[in-house]
User: Fold this.
Amino acid sequence: MTLPVLKLQGAVVRYDRVTAVDGVSLELRRGETLGLVGESGCGKSSIARAIVGLQPLAGGTLSIEGESLGGISPQRRRSLQQKIQLLFQDPAASLSPRMTVGNLLAEPLKIRRTFRPGRWAEVRALAESIGLGQQLLSRYPHQLSGGQARRVALVRVLAADPSIIVADEPTAGLDISVQGDLLNVLRSLRERLGLSYLLISHNLNVVGRVTDRVAVMYLGQIVESGPTAAIFNAPAHPYTQALLSANLTLNPDRRRERVVLSGELPSPSNPPSGCRFHKRCPIAQPICANLAPTLQASNNERSVACHFPLTTAPAIIPQAIAG
Ligand code: SF4
Assistant:
């Protein structure tokens, strides 16, 4: 089995007294796209920040290409961390309005003095290959379409020569056709440059289209993970089932199968006892309030944290898979 390019084990992220991420383990394999999904506030972005070094881990370990970041020199840590780049939510908003596209693309190379000769030519060729031709280099951000601005931001990230990209809601705010174009660009860059992606999104259509595997988060913990197609077709965790069924609005015939969750996502500062999902779970039993289920692996690469996993596939074929 190939070594994962990125491995989190028992990761804990805290902000003051709030534990936003509580014991998360996940692996990103070389050349794959792993989706991380869950409601807003479940801890997805905190994981992204910890992985790229913007937020320290309060517990657990992070390894990049088999090397743990704990106990290594700051120089080595920087060098490993540089292999991971974060594509921010609405990255186009981070483009300076006073800089031309040419200067925006060159800027990351000027900031980093470690770039090898010929890198600028490679970056220009890369930009051109995804539709940022010569004619755009003299334009300013406000003269770009939404899709072009996202591509400029993407090339700036790629200029750091990463092997892993953490993309936090990369298609947020784009209309459907522009989303599709951007996802195609991301997919083709993954093949050409041998990249691995951790894609964080609440948009299940996007996740279903581009990810190989998916991990579902609820209140700071992973509740289910495995191959995307298998999970989308037959979720084993009631929360995954509810998330997917909420995505059936484009499929009127299946609306009756919708699983409606009661209540709001509880606060991570005071998580429920036992299974964190028990107050909202439609099939909760008395044991669920007292005993927290652990993530159990099955023999088909799937894992689920539930005392009563769903064993029969509900007739849910989310739009992401169907379309
Ligand atoms: Fe629902 Fe119980 Fe499973 Fe939690 S452990 S998801 S409450 S059935």
